[in-house]
Design goal:
mainly alpha; elongated
Length: about 200
Amino acid sequence: VVARAAVPPGWPRAPARHAAAPFPLGPLAPRPSQAAARAMTSVDRVGFLDTTTQSFFAESYRKEEQRRQDFLEKQYDAHEGEGEAYVPPLTLRQKAELAAEREAEENARRGPPLPAGYSRDEDSKLIFEMSKKMNQRLNPGYTIAPHAATSKADFTYDEDELDPVDKTHFRKRDTFSQYVEAQARFSLLTKKQKNSG
C-alpha cells in the first residue's frame, strides 16, 4: 500500500480508482521543474504508469535545472569578480581601440563615402529618366507626341460639352504626368490582350 500525502484544503481529491496513486495531488516540491515533471508524468494524469515517458521527462527536467543552476553560479561568480565568466573591466586604451574597430567595420559595411557635391536628388532624377526611356522603348502606348486637332469641329466651343475648370486638383502637365498616363495606357493594353486571348 502506497502512503498518500495529505491534500491541502482547496485541492481536488483523487477519484476512488486512483486511490493507490504514488503521487500526491497537492504541491510536490519547491522547484517548479520537478513539480512539472511529476505533473506531466503522474498516474493521476494518464491513468497508467508509463515509466519510459516518466523517466524521459524527469531526466530532461533534471538536466534543465542543473544547466540553469550552473549558469546562475557562473553569473554570481562573475558578479563577485571570480570564475571563468568574469571579464575584467576595459581600460581607456582598450575602449578606444574597440571603438576604432567598430567604426572601421561600420565604414567597411557602408562602402566608400559619397563624392563632394553629390545629392540623392540627382540619383533619383537619373533613375527616373532611365525608367522613362526604358518605358518609351517597351511600351507601345507611350506616345509623347502632342495631340493635333484634325477637324474644324475640334476648334468650336460648346458650353454643354465642357464643364467649368476646377482648379482644386489642377496640375501642369509635365513629363511625369505623361509617364503616368503612358503607364495607365500600357496596363489597359495588356488587359485588353489578356481578355481577348
